[in-house]
Amino acid sequence: MTLALLIEQLLNGIQFGVMLFLMAAGLTLVFGVMGLINLAHGSLYMIGAFLCASVALATGSFWLGLAASLAGAAAAGAVVEIVVIRRLYDRDHLDQVLATFALILIFSEGTRWVFGSFPLYLDIPQALQGAVALPGGAQYPLYRLSIIIVGVLIAIGLYLLISRTRLGMRIRAGESDREMIGALGVDIRTLYTVVFALGAALAGFAGALVGAIQSVQVGMGEPVLILAFVVIVIGGIGSIKGALIGAILVGVVDTLGRILLPELFGLFMGPSQATSVGSALASMAIYILMAVILALKPQGLFAAGAQ
Amino acid sequence: MSRETVINWVLGLGLLAVPFIALMQGEPFYITLATRVAILALAGVGLNLALGLGGMVSFGHAAFFGIGGYAAGILATHAFNQEPLLAWPLTVSGSSDMLVIWLVAIAICALVALVIGAITLRTSGVYFIMITLAFAQMIYYFAISWPAYGGEDGLSIYVRNGFPGLNTLDPIQFFLICYAVLMACLFISARLRDSRFGAALQVARQNPDRLAATGIAPFNIRLVAFVISAAMTGLAGALFADLNRFVSPSMLSWHVSGEIMIFVILGGVGRLFGPLAGAALFIVMEFYLGGITEHWQLFLGIILLCVVLFVRGGILGIMAGRRVHA
């Protein structure tokens, strides 16, 4: 194990964490403001990826695809909010889980109907191909590095949006007392639609960015969705800061665990046995992390109510 | 007899009648379909105990369903290969006897549920939903990456496990076993619901503070209910593995958790026979929609969405009317 490999894997972990943050931010906003648990968030991620891949294929431009995924996912989010989600705010979590589970079935099967079962592929844009030299002599793909930078910029942007703008003020007010801001004349229904569309756009954007690294296929959103749940549970539901820290933590632990645990077991086991035990444990590592954090802090690291 | 009791009788006897009618019509495939309904309803009956009576929205019951399945698969494999499961400190051999397998499945599921419940029941609401989901995913990924028992490819059970005195390879006899287990668990559920424990469990859902004020700790009541619920779902998993003669990580996937939850809600949360009504409707829809279009999941999703949005209380809610104690 060299230092260069370690740095590379650490960056991979951060890049994965940044992706998770884009997903988790929308989930945690929607939960914090509307009290809604949305399983269909992963479908919006998938829609973003499919839109980007198909627009990029048709026009030859990744950037047009990226714009299409942002706009398309936001529009899909707004439509879903108005048609379905709006009726769920007053229901208990059980109904919300079930209705959004039904939405997953509809979106996944609908996408399969339109695009078929074969995965689409999305090329990394010309400008971002190639690699950057890292200290220690390693090369790191420019595209992944750009994802990290974009993710950090979005995190800063979200922070500014929520703490400095009028919309952000309303979102925060909606989190603490929704009747009150309604009484003060804010159009709650539109605010909810905007928040939901914002979360959807972030998820679609994440899907489009990841689409160039992985294949774009039906069901790609589900593993990410579940990891995003782990992230917001660790970070504390409703907290953007918690989502960011939780996402980086989960991304790094998952990525490094897959590299380091087999090596660790290799110190006192045979190589094949160490690989199987190590990789089995590594796939469970983030869930163990979550269980430990919850055993210590049942409300997560940065519970929204405890600030 | 109340209207719900009549409907329960109709559902119970109706399911029993299906395989015999199928046999007379010369359509043995429907026997398997009825067996599926009985087994999946059993998984739902387990979840209903936690979800309906105790208000614990577990999104991770696939874990117990899958563990039950793997208990059947692993014991049967060791018995088939005549390898001991454990050589030291004492010799434990595999088994192809359903009674032994059921006991093992129940015991392991209860143990796992005790650990998972002890951690997850410290939380509530949406945290509980997500954490039970995460624990199930943890076991799912473990099953995928652990190569000893087939990993991602799963594990085949070459000969369906036996039951003393019966021929389990005969579809009708296997159906009757599953049906009897379902009815036994429904009976246990009914007795539990009407017992002092059941009363405490329902108060733990409605008003935990009041329960605590009477000197009963809600946590312990919930934990016991969660363990019993997991054991029943695990038993269903063992039967399901025997039905398909195959067990794979897909039994542990979160779609299964969602489906078990759908059975309960489609039928009517907290209703004794709700899971049976829900599982029957789900399987029938899956079967007929699947026959019409390849994209049946799309229509299943739309129907499900409409049920959640517009039909509150599930099938039994429509047919038997609102309950006094919702």
Q: Separation of termini of chain B? A: 20 Å
Total of domains of chain A: 1
Q: Number of domains in the coordinates of chain B?
A: 1
Q: Rg of chain A from C-alpha positions?
A: 20 Å
Q: How far do the termini of chain A sit from each other?
A: 41 Å
Instruction: Work out the oligomeric state of the chains in this entry.
Output: heterodimer
Beta-strand percentage range of chain B: under 5%
Structural class of chain B: mainly alpha
Helix count, DSSP H or I runs of 4 or more residues of chain B = 13
Question: Helicity level of chain A, as a percent range?
Answer: over 70%
Specify the biggest β-sheet of chain A: 2 strands, antiparallel
**Proportion of strand residues of chain A:** under 5%
- Helix count, DSSP H or I runs of 4 or more residues of chain A: 11
Overview of this protein structure:
The complex is a heterodimer of chains A (about 300) and B (about 325). Chain A has eleven helices and two strands, in the order ααααββααααααα. Chain A is an all-alpha fold and about 300 residues long. Chain A has one domain. Chain A has a two-stranded antiparallel ribbon. In chain A, a hairpin with a 5-residue loop joins β1 and β2. The longest helix of chain A is centred in the first third of the chain and has 32 residues. The radius of gyration of chain A is 20 Å and the shape is globular. Chain B has one domain. Helices cover about 70% and strands about 5% of the residues of chain B. In chain B, the strands form two sheets. In chain B, strands 1-2 form a two-stranded antiparallel ribbon. A two-stranded antiparallel ribbon of chain B has the order 3-4. Chain B starts with a helix and ends in a 6-residue tail after the last helix. The mean pLDDT of chain B is about 90. The interface between A and B is large, with 44 and 41 residues.
